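User: Can you predict the 3D structure for this chain?
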Amino acid sequence: MTRRSITLFAGLVCIMVGGLVTDRAAAAPARSIDICHGYGCAFRSRLVFGPGDDSKFAALLAAGRASPEAERKAIARAVSYFEKRAQQVTGVRDLPRSEFGASKVKGQMDCVDESTNTDALLRYLAGRGLLKHHEVVARDSRGFLLDGRYPHWTAVIRAPDGVRWVVDSWYAPMGGAPDIIRLGDWKSRGVLESGALN
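Assistant: Here is the predicted structure, written as structure tokens:
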């Protein structure tokens, strides 16, 4: 099996369980997030935030106060920091995308895990009053096989002008910058197409 077919197969797994995982940030304690991993949230590891984390998130998001665009860049940095902290809890640096055979492997994440974790972080940041220009909305997906595309899930934020933006950390290795692109642009892509400009 080629790497492309393996990744495509892993994308199929994302849709099979993506809709079954609900946004559960509201149930999480105010100072922690349960990190999903093992594909489809097979495992959960609690990440407890301390004062140093609070200061770091506040500093990162302060850089985004000037505009929605600046805040999206700050959100990307906050997601990168969050994923490095998540690695300390899971003990594994997740690889980019999904690898066939990594289901039920602690620390490895598919798009369901990634989108659920990112959504939980965004809701944590919003709950602490750190998001000035964006509202966190329900996760979204694209592709459903019948349209010729493998399914894929992402976290979503909405800007003041109503435009929805995806915050998709699946393409980068753990701690890398997530794709933050317009939902409409993201929806038209195939599962293997990153929106990253770099």
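The chain has a mean pLDDT of 82. Residues 3-187 form one domain.
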